[in-house]
Amino acid sequence: MSLLHVSSPHIHKPFSSVEQVMKQVLLATIPGVLVMTWFFGPGTLLNIIFGSALALGFEAWALWLRGKDFKSPLKDHSVIVTATLLCIALPPYAPWWLIAVGVGVSVLLGKHVFGGLGYNPFNPAMVAYVLLLISFPVEMTRWLPVVDLSNIDITFATALQIIFTEQSPYQIAVDSLSGATPLDIMKTQIGLAQTPELIQQNSAFGLLAGQGWQWVNIWFAIGGLFLLYRKVINWHIPFAMLFALTFISLITWLISPETTASPLFHLLSGGTMIGAFFIATDPVSAATSRQGKLLYGAGIGVLVILIRNLGGYPDAVAFAVLLMNLCVPLLDIVSVPRPVGQTTARADERKSAP
Amino acid sequence: MRQIFDIHGGIHPPERKELSDPGFVMDCPPPSKLVLPVTQHIGAPARPIVEVGDTVLGGQMIAEAQGPVSVPVHSPSSGTVTAIASRAVPHASGMTDTCIEITLDGRCEWITCEGVADWRAESKAVLLDRVRLAGVAGLGGAGFPTAIKLASDRAIGIHTLVINGTECEPYITADDTVMQCFAREVVEGAEILAHMVGAETILLAVEDNKHEAAEAMKDASAHLASAEVVTFPTKYPSGGEKQLIELLLNVQVPSGGIPADIGVLCQNPGTAMAVRAALIDGKPLTDRITTLTGMALGKPGNRRVMLGTPIGELLALGDFNSETSDRVIHGGPMMGFAVTDLDMPVVKITNCVLAPTRSEIPPPQPQQACIRCGLCAEVCPASLLPQQLYWFARAKDQEQLERHNLMDCIECGACAYVCPSHIPLVQYYRSAKGSMREASKEKLRSDNSRVRFEARQERLERETAARDAKRAARKAAAEARLEAGDDPVQAAIERAKAKKAQQEGEQ
Prior knowledge:
The structure holds two protein chains of two kinds.
Chain A: H1 18-40, H2 43-65, H3 72-75, H4 78-89, H5 96-109, H6 124-135, H7 137-140, H8 156-165, H9 174-177, H10 182-191, H11 196-199, H12 213-229, H13 236-255, H14 263-267, H15 272-279, H16 290-310, H17 317-334, H18 347-352
Helix pairs in contact in A: 1-4, 1-12, 2-4, 2-5, 4-5, 4-6, 5-6, 6-17, 12-15, 13-15, 13-16, 16-17
Chain B: E1 25-26, E2 33-37, E3 47-48, E4 55-56, E5 61-64, E6 73-74, E7 79-88, E8 96-104, H1 124-133, H2 146-151, E9 160-165, H3 174-181, H4 183-197, E10 201-207, H5 211-221, E11 227-232, H6 241-249, E12 264-267, H7 269-281, E13 287-293, E14 301-306, H8 311-317, E15 329-330, E16 337-338, E17 352-354, H9 375-379, H10 386-394, H11 398-403, H12 414-418, H13 425-483, H14 488-506
Parallel strand pairs in B: 1-14, 9-10, 9-12, 10-11, 13-17
Antiparallel strand pairs in B: 2-8, 3-5, 4-7, 5-6, 7-8, 13-14, 15-16, 15-17
Helix pairs in contact in B: 3-5, 4-5, 4-7, 10-13
């Protein structure tokens, strides 16, 4: 018999693979996506299907260009996760070319120019999202009001027509179908010297935050809790981000309730929950150690509120994540844990110590 | 009940301990020949004191300790020395080393062994010498010479003796079996060890998956006020010496230090039993309890195996089916190494021989890209950042590796076990550690040569200066004489003339 000469450990955790990790992330997005479909029609779902197919194509192309084996990396589902997260963040019924540009940018410029999976310093989905937001502001803000608030019933067929022809079958401009998101309304109305309390009387708002949006956020949070339970993600980043977001918005709200929205509104609006549990937790571009993750998450939370309250954009998760991605190398340097039996965390600190 | 403290990280791999039926010692007929490496411990190799053709008896010393950190080797049975040559030995690197091969005569004749009458009455030096001469080295896996560990003279005295019956590696049940079948001997050995180092407390530490062993230890130690059996939740690697001490005592062994630095001594139950045998029976260490397990074996179980028994013969005893298996592991599945040659012998550190089937432990899967998920950092018992170390190891960035404390890695394999990308992390760390050791040796060498070179330069300069000074002094003296009208040249001419005149006068 020929003996295998392999290094220890000889056993490996069952069912632990990149593919499994990615599958569980995809599984966890399902409740949120279904709720989005409930409130906004099948647009998001179609975005995701179209975007994922494109993403697989771009991934295979990029791997082929780089002279890599492109069969097994395609099977790890990582590129589908990127596409799914991007498509969730895009407005439903975004034109097909917007999706194509976004997916292409996220796979090629977000990931492969840095060396592929595991090497990207920035969250690829957010790189693409920000690029689209800055380049195509009209298309990127074309969110529909929730189905209840519009008098148009959107079927799969109409959805496909809107996505691929940018024509709505109702003989009305696509633009007039769309409406401002609750975050948009909040921002513009505060600019018009309305109080948040009064603004929330608007029909676009529900009991807790934006109509529809509150449930989307709650269900993405539930998906996130599933990931926590399955130990796919750790609590550090989502907890730190949501805590910092609540804390900062509470302070600003207490200081100036006439010009800032409540912490509850911020928690359940826009991309807060998908950001906290699905975007910020992308391990490749996040900080490494527990302490680093706490700092990283808190930074995102603070930046989200700062940009929402003071910046030019209604939502800020993408910007906040990218800005904190920039800080990761620094966070990784300052947040090395102290090993068992050592007096300090890093060896260079010991040398300088007396 | 003693409070148990938490340690960082850890994993819960499938235990598979029932496979080798702990608590029973199966028959193990002596093999036809034994291969005894001169190095079965950490330290200097023992020096063979027999020659090819010599007949030896069981218990006879066949290689003597060389230097303080070394232990002798004894023949486990009677026979003839048939070779002293380089053979494959159990080592992660698959290396060969000097071995003494003994062909057994089957008579099992032993030397007469004599123990000490009353170990309490003997001096520590006598007891230590006995332990050393009996060739006792740690049976838990590292094989550190026990006498050295016991002789440690730290400023702080040993206050606690920990008998490490954790056995946290999957599959292995050797210590479990020792504690169940030889409970009295283990406890007596622990008593002797505690007496030798002056420890007031004996903690018999057993993981809670070994209920019978814990009960056996409790029964055997009931008469000892100083001894306590401590059970704690099963988690790998709680049995790591530093992990166990933190778990029991909530203190951390300083990095690079040993438990004695904080007044603790850790010993394996098998080692305690070997120390007892060395002192009370006067018997050297020539056999051990070894777990033979894995699905490729028809008859797995624990056996009392003579040291030097070829692993291949041991596998044959267990009805090994080589059709279904493509690897044999020396030690456990987490830290053990693959056996490269089935003639490799069982040695003092062989707690387990694992022969899994291909479906039981499949070949390693291809490595994928690191997605920095951080699962490795969550399970690392040393609180390191394995994913960062992996990047630095790949980049061969020794400065960063040092800064991130690679040397504190205990190579337990928990990180690689959970890695979703199937990266053989431990292999990267071993290789990086090797390069770092090499680099620090290289640095030491270059530092030494620099010091030597500088010393030589200094000496040469000193000599030149001394020569110059001498020359200057001579010159000054000559000039002084010249000035005084004392011309040496003229004087020499005068002398020559006088000599010539004298010679002429004689003629």
